[in-house]
């Protein structure tokens, strides 16, 4: 009996349930409303599990979480760039809403600042990321981690920073003229130091802490300068 089937995706012939060339199932069901709802449900439940678990680990085990991911414990985590993009997008939308609300009801802030978060923030940080990773990699070049692994550390760390920055920005509803950078800097320096000490756990803790502070201050200044420059350009 000939059980050979033709894949509807790539045209490759084979036997079994799945195409050995592209991996698609040989049998495809007709698209229905219930199938679409199932796909949406599957997407959000999968996102919730990976995203929620990763965020929890970034809160309770910063640095250790990134290290275990690099060492191979990956199935339960949201992937690094996906986590970065999701958190950056949440932050862009959240801060845009905050600044738009402040403008509308409190007459505080400026339109260009709101537009920056709405349209340019995610793009800016994606462009800055290779530079930020290089600076950190050079500061810790004697560690066991390569450039890409350093990037994973920072993708997750910045994901957490984005969400916390949005929460801090909410304080402007209480103090409308507050410059949130004065709160963000000490909070992020402290968190960054803990993260780096846990991540670079084979190096001297005091030296890692000092380097982490130096690296973050440099990165913070670069990011602040780039944000201000972008806002001036679009003004």
Distance between the termini: 72 Å
Low-confidence stretches: none
Strand content: under 5%
What are the secondary-structure elements, in order, as H or E? Answer: EEHHHHHHH
Per the principal axes of the C-alpha atoms, what is the gross shape? globular
How helix-rich are the residues, as a percent range? Answer: 55-70%
Largest sheet features: 2 strands, antiparallel
Count of DSSP helices? 7
Strand order across the biggest sheet?
Answer: 1-2
What is the mean predicted local confidence, pLDDT?
81
Radius of gyration: 22 Å
Q: How many distinct folded domains?
A: 1
Multimerization status = single chain
What's the topology here?
Layout lengths: L4 E2 L6 E2 L18 H28 L3 H7 L9 H27 L4 H29 L7 H23 L11 H19 L5 H30 L1
Antiparallel strand pairs: 1-2
Can you give a write-up of this model?
There is one protein chain. With 235 residues, this protein is mostly helical. The protein has one domain. Helices cover 69% and strands 2% of the residues. It is built from seven helices and two strands, in the order ββααααααα. It has helices at residues 33-60, 64-70, 80-106, 111-139, 147-169, 181-199, 205-234, and strands at 5-6, 13-14. Strands 1-2 form a two-stranded antiparallel sheet. Strand 1 (5-6) and strand 2 (13-14) form a beta hairpin. Helix 3 runs antiparallel to helix 4 (111-139), helix 4 (111-139) runs antiparallel to helix 5 (147-169) and helix 5 packs antiparallel against helix 6 (181-199). The longest helix is centred in the last third of the chain and has 30 residues, at 205-234. The chain is globular and about 70 Å long. The mean pLDDT is 81.
């Amino acid at each position: 009996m000939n059980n050979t089937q033709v894949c509807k995706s790539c045209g490759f012939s084979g036997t079994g349930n799945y195409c050995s060339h592209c991996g698609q199932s040989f049998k495809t069901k007709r698209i229905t409303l219930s199938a679409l709802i199932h796909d949406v449900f599957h997407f959000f439940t999968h996102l919730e599990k990976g995203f929620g678990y990763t965020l929890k680990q970034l809160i309770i085990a910063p640095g250790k979480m990134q290290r275990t991911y690099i060492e191979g414990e990956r199935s339960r985590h949201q992937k690094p760039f996906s986590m970065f993009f999701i958190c950056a997008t949440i932050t862009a939308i959240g801060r845009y809403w905050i600044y738009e609300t402040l403008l509308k009801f409190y007459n505080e802030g400026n339109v260009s600042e709101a537009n920056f978060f709405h349209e340019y923030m995610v793009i800016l940080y994606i462009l800055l990321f290779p530079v930020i990773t290089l600076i950190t990699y050079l500061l810790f070049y004697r560690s066991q981690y390569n450039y890409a692994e350093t990037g994973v550390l920072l993708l997750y760390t910045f994901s957490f920073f984005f969400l916390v920055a949005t929460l801090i920005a909410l304080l402007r509803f209480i103090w409308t003229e507050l410059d949130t950078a004065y709160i963000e800097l000490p909070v992020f320096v402290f968190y960054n130091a803990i993260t780096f000490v846990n991540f670079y756990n084979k190096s001297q803790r005091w030296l890692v802490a000092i380097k982490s502070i130096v690296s973050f201050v440099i990165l913070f200044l670069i990011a602040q300068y780039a944000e201000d420059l972008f806002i001036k350009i679009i003004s």
